[in-house]
Amino acid sequence: MMISNLVTLQLKTEENFDENLNNLTKHIKSCEKYSLILAPELCLTGYCYDKLELASSFTVVATDTIKELSKEKTISLTMITYDKKKKSYQNTAFVFSQNSLIHKQSKAKLFHLNKEADYFLQADEKNIKLFDIGNTKVGLLICFELRFINLWLKLKGADIILVPSMWGVLRKQNLEQLSCALAVANQCYVVVANSAYDDMAKSSAVISPFGDVVIDDDKSKIVAKFIKSEITKMRRYIHIAQNNL
Question: For an engineered disulfide with 207, which of 17, 130, 158, 183 has Cβ 3.0 to 4.6 Å away?
Fold first, then answer.
């Protein structure tokens, strides 16, 4: 699957799961084919600690819906899953393309301030690794994981890094600074999709390898062209790989 556009969705999560899925579906359908679309962290359910069983069951329903929408698009979102063997819930990122699930990755760095660690099983960092969408190398960091520089190194060589988030407004500047730094340091595109809920930072953006930022807190959908040659140009210009020899 080729990628021509990078799309970040900036959506508000409501209490009704079906309404959230309908809103997400509407936005996905509005995107051009060959778009890579990123939704905010847990945009269909929120954390809903009192409804985890219901949320994990809804993930099965949503998976079928999103998979059908991915025929000519690549779609990524995080949803609540249940591991039957470990009898635990996880915050899990899914990537769908060409009507198939092509990547799955659960959150390895849980955010203690919102008691995430009390309800979700922490995943192994070894699952944070590059995967391919056609001839494009992609990595993924879920929200709080963006703060850990050692995880940036695990995604060295990525053309695109996806960052689905539910990042609070009090740390809005941190989100913008870290995501821009990641793009420049790894010389790649970074796509951040953050919640538009009232106490969230918004700050959804597409950031180029040069640090150019496309951002608009007033929009629910932000689109930028994916120009792979810009990655090559930046890497040749700066010569970071050569200096690491």
Answer: 183
